[in-house]
Amino acid sequence: MKFKPHPYQKEAIKMLLKESSSGLFLDPGEGKTSCVLAALDILKQKGMFKRALVFATLNIIQLETWQDEIRKWGFSKEFDFSVLHGKGRDLKNISEITLINYEGLGWLYENKRVLKNKFDVLVLDESDQVKSFSAQRFKMFKKIIHLFERRYILTGTPAPKNLMDLFSQMYLLDEGERLGRYITHYRNEYFNPCGFKGYQYDLQEGADDKIHKKIKDIIYRPSKDYLKIPKEKYNEIIIKLPKKVMKQYKELEDDYILEVEAGTITAANAGVMSQKLRQVSNGCVYGEGKKPVRIHDYKLEACKSIVSELQGNPVLIGYEFRHELDALLKIFPGAPFIGTTLSNKKPTAKQKNKIKDDWNKGDVPILLGQISSIARGLNIQESGHTIILYGHTHHLGDLIQFIRRLRRQGQKKRVVVHRLICKGTVDEDIILSQNAKKKTQDNLLDAMRKRRLK
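The structure corresponding to this sequence follows.
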């Protein structure tokens, strides 16, 4: 099939050709990969392209997302491609498009001397994977980006926490030209210290607009929603836990300790306590030796009720912790899953691809997916439009990407997301936090879109 870009994709390709360092802030499913491939094809025809090194998440590599796009749109006639992954990886075995997962950066960095002159284009797919300015990943990238004549970042979730997430991603494009060379300068210019000992930061008044203006010339966001994919509909299912369970919840919340028949559950600090509270809300908590202790089955019963009402129509169930997967497999035996059980059982890359294909054929009525594991690379919009969020993640980027596995180009129906929320628990706090983070990111993406109109 020959690639025929949508109008907004034509504009995105123009941006990639015009700006040697630029980014596409396109929503998941809007075709970031195909835009890059089309731009590289044009550069190749003009003799301006040698090889591209593409960083992607392990899930994207294993699910062969880039390879599928190359084949689907006929780019396999233009490019050869290879993957640097596993023990046998070797920089001698590279192609015009070479894929590597972010976890392979350390190995690549150790071989940076032989990296010189091998690639002229660097692509960071899901560039929010490099959002942490203090992480080794960002520090290693800083030392090799000069080896690439062109650098592209691709993401639909550029600021999943706040606008601090933009600094490292933009630095890898312009080496500090727009937002500053140092994180301290960026913080001092646009943020005010707050929180415990000033270790947290709030945006200064009007700073968000200043940041948007700084980056608008090298970031592309469509001027409107060309695809008109219906927004997801949320259905909040409020679960009122019985007094006994809420008493246990409050005991853990207040005292950092909970006595149950199976033993004593303790939380060493506030961070651990927050995680334990999420587990209690979801019905099971890790005790001594990581042994799961069952507290209640109310979310499991809610899941069973929704699935029963669907009468065999496909549903994607998102969970967080391993013990949740084990519990869900007990009530939905035989359901395929993407994640890891308590016994360390998990699907291979080949099995993941079969699950994807079977789902898209309509042969999978229930798919269980760990939110972080399934969030990127799995395109399953061709069958099913119902999601159940059994657990809730603090990571907005993972949540948005998880929902976008179904709500993307090719989806024919409005996606319905059933949120299971235990009243008076951390579930409510997480959703409030998600909404606040989403507002910040939406403002950024809307600003990029509006500036495209000017």
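The longest helix spans residues 426-453.
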